[in-house]
Amino acid sequence: MSINTESIIHNILERVSGIGYVKPEDIPNIDLYMDQVTTFMEAQLAHSKRYKDDKILTKTMINNYAKNNLLPSPEKKRYSKEHLLVLIFIYYFKNILSINDIQTLLGPLTDKYFKSDENLDLTSIYTEVFSMEKGQIEALQKELLERYEIAQGTFKDAPEEDRDFLKLFSFICLLSFDVYVKKMLIEQMIDDLRATTDYDPKHKSKK
User: Fold this and answer.
1) Which of 40, 58, 70, 203 could link 65 by a cystine bridge, Cβ 3.0 to 4.6 Å?
2) pTM
């Protein structure tokens, strides 16, 4: 089984280097209707698709988020800049967290900072968080290369026809273990947050 692992890591690093985030200044300051929201999100987050035909956000998803109290209800069927910020957070969280966990994280934010008149609002929170994440790209590339090199050192005595696949399998296992541990830690922190704040996951009110 011939697998070009060097090409794979090159493609991975290239994709990582292209990771960006939706800048606050790119988000319209005018309220949008549903179709405009889905079109905007599709254009801004297209780089994160796994397959070309994948949908970033659909009307059904947005309606379900509002129904499950993840997203504040639109005003007169229109969505504000703050709605879009919350949707972006949901988009990234939903790949690794349950609906209840996302509710626990976003509930306090939307309750306190959605349409806030204070200096600290959702826009400033979003800007702070994502500017921090963007700065981690170089560190992530270095980490990926280190794990790749570790995986390349495995299965030296395996049959030659299987060696490339087994090294790739090792690399995937290393990355998967990293994701597993981080996901477990995130869930533990959310559980601690839920216990500490006694916050209702539906975030309509505190218990």
Assistant:
1) 70
2) 0.84
pLDDT per residue over 164-199, tens digit each? 999 999 999 999 999 999 999 999 999 999 988 765
In which residue are the tokens 């209702």 written? Answer: 200
Instruction: Give the tokens for residue 114.
Output: 């959605």
